[in-house]
Automatic annotation (TrEMBL):
Principal cellular location given in the protein's record: membrane
Organism name: Vreelandella salicampi
Ranges where the Tripartite ATP-independent periplasmic transporters DctQ component domain occurs: 22-151
One GO cellular component, as annotated: plasma membrane
Pfam families noted in UniProt: DctQ
Subunit structure: The complex comprises the extracytoplasmic solute receptor protein and the two transmembrane proteins.
Lineage: Bacteria, Pseudomonadati, Pseudomonadota, Gammaproteobacteria, Oceanospirillales
Name by which UniProt lists this protein: TRAP transporter small permease protein
Amino acid sequence: MQGRPDARPERWLGAIALIIIASISLANVVTRYVTGGSFSFTEEFSVFLLVVLTFAGASVALRRNRHIRIGLLERALSPGPRKALIVFQALCGAAVLGLITWYGAKLAWQEYQWESLSPGLGLPQWWYIVWLPLLSGAMLWRLFEQTRDRLTGSLTDEP
């Protein structure tokens, strides 16, 4: 691997989500200032895009080994126990992300089957929910990549 590890699709997705949030929020503020009214869709879309932005950013942070954790114990251990701790951390993270992916997919499928509509705009609810398992699955993949690189020594905790 050359340079810094990357998660380009998630970076693009996060950037696009942030640009759209900023644009519709600015348009809503200007419209409210000029007309006294506001766009009805901005809150629903902004919340959805904020969730997308959060998961995309978390995926990038995972890939770049920038998640918050206490590395004191890790740095104090010799290489053998350190690798065991890295594997343990990865297994715990994989369990959580696997559950989010599984139950998120199950929820999205149920919302699709039930034909549930969003409360604000009446759009199919699964349009919003399907991003949860997709992006948590991306985080799971980035976790595996990060763990592999940490175990081989090509990714360290040092900035």
